[in-house]
Amino acid sequence: MDIRCGFPVSGGCPVLKEKGVLVTMKFSKDNLIASSELVDVYRCGDTCVKLFKEGVRKTNPLYEALTHSRVEDTGLPVPVIHELSVIDGRWAIHMDLIEGKTLADLMKENPANMDKYLNDMVDIQLEIHSKSVPKLSKLKDKMSRQINSLTEIDDVKKYELLTRLESMPKHTKLCHGNFVPENIIYNEKGMYVVDWIAARQGNASADVGRTYLLLSLRDPAFADKYLDLFCKKTNTDRKYVQRWLPIVAAAYLPDAKPEEHDFLMKWVDVVEYE
């Protein structure tokens, strides 16, 4: 049982209903918003609860809550975390529920507005990159660890990738780490960006490279339009971003889904021909 704000909670979250009556909302399929290997996300009134699966080490929710809170301090449009708790032995992060539609949904529903949505997507990413969060972990260090952990590539290729990584400009811009249309929510107040667990400080073009690869898995033509627009808005040479792609692809491999593996390996192999 979890005690929060003076109220006992077991298997659910407290919701203040009309006339000040407090009830306990049970976690069930009826209020399930999303689910993954690590978490289930539930609607609880005007908030949501990110409930980590049993067996997930506490370092995951603690790190995510800390990272997200540091991003909050930048003033970017993100959900606000209100509480970190344990519910029936499972760690939980309580935050604002952002109502609205994801950019991915809007793109499907209104393909005629694709150019506007793409422009909005790049603009909000540039706003993210304009921020600095000095206490965040470094993206370069994360990529180095991930590349070193790989078993799919030999030591020679690891050396080539790590050498290139070390030679790339070292920036300290805020990088989202998983910036895709599914993590952008539109509502009457504007756009919100969610899912900050992978946020780091580093080179913006590495962050863009990650987005480009994720988009390319589904729609290569749209991914190219995205990269062209980013380069145009920032006066960045497309070839510079492309130099990041083998590094980013290799760093993404440890967390890749089976169906993404061959695609990423093709990009890792590009380093041999440059």
Summarize the structure.
The protein has 274 residues and is of the alpha+beta class. Helix content is 41%, strand content 23%.
What's the helix and strand layout?
Elements: E1 2-4, E2 7-9, E3 12-16, E4 22-26, E5 32-35, E6 39-44, E7 47-52, H1 59-72, E8 81-87, E9 90-96, E10 101-102, H2 103-109, H3 114-129, H4 139-148, H5 155-167, E11 173-175, E12 184-187, E13 190-193, E14 200-202, H6 204-216, H7 220-234, H8 238-252, H9 261-269
Antiparallel strand pairs: 1-2, 3-4, 5-6, 6-7, 7-9, 8-9, 10-12, 11-14, 12-13
Helix pairs in contact: 3-7, 4-5, 4-8, 5-8, 6-7, 6-8, 8-9
Would you mind describing this structure in some detail?
The protein has 274 residues and is an alpha+beta fold. It folds into 2 domains: 2-96, Phosphorylase Kinase, domain 1 (2-Layer Sandwich); 101-273, Aminoglycoside phosphotransferase (APH), C-terminal lobe (Aminoglycoside 3'-phosphotransferase, Chain: A, domain 2, Alpha-Beta Complex), CATH 3.90.1200.10. It has helices at 59-72, 103-109, 114-129, 139-148, 155-167, 204-216, 220-234, 238-252, 261-269, and strands at 2-4, 7-9, 12-16, 22-26, 32-35, 39-44, 47-52, 81-87, 90-96, 101-102, 173-175, 184-187, 190-193, 200-202. Strands 5-6-7-9-8 form a 5-stranded antiparallel β-sheet, with helices on one face. α6 packs across α8 (238-252). 30% of the residues are buried. Residues 1-12 and 14-23 have low confidence and may be disordered.
